[in-house]
Amino acid sequence: MSLDAVRAALESALNSLSPAIATAWENVNYTPVEGVPFQRVNLIPATPGNDEISRSYIERGTLQVMLAYPAGAGPADASDRAEKIRDAFYRGRSLVSGSLVVTIERTPEIGVGAIDPNGRWALPVRIRYTAPVVVA
């Protein structure tokens, strides 16, 4: 359940960015439109933290947003979107989903862009998070 809450908090914040762009959510059918940018989103859980001997733990991981823009138009539009994501998910931001508080652990990383197998300019943005899970 905690990963569902983490996903909900992060996806809700991403979905609220303006201007909105089409999004390919995990395990949801999506057909890209030629010439129209979109973002593909994946939650990548890491090994949970166990800072104490108890059933409680810390969810850790990365929300990866792969920006997919038309090739041949230069990197500016994708880079601008990546910066918007970085600004929205600033280090220390807290997002709430139910009783879980998800904290952005680091400034989001903007990776190296490249042409993907579908011929789009793809630019990854990785958002690292932590979320303490208290189990009674």
Average pLDDT for all residues: 95
Strand fraction equals 35-45%
How many beta-strand segments? 8
Q: Counting H and I runs of at least 4 residues, what is the number of helices?
A: 2
The radius of gyration computed from the alpha-carbon positions, rounded to a whole number of angstroms, is 16 Å
CATH class: Alpha Beta
Question: Could you please say which CATH topology applies here?
Answer: STM4215-like
Shape: elongated
Q: Biggest β-sheet, characterized? A: 8 strands, mixed
Instruction: Bin the helical content.
Output: 10-25%
Helix-strand pattern, N to C?
HEEEHEEEEE
Uncertain stretches of 5 or more adjacent residues: none
Domain module count = 1
Terminal CA distance reads 15 Å
The CATH architecture: 2-Layer Sandwich
- Given helix and strand content, the structural type is alpha+beta
Short description:
The chain is α+β, with helices and mostly antiparallel strands. 20% of the residues lie in helices and 38% in strands.
How is the topology of this model organized?
Layout (H helix, E strand, L loop, with lengths): L1 H14 L6 E3 L13 E8 L11 E14 L5 H13 L5 E4 L2 E5 L4 E2 L3 E2 L4 E14 L3
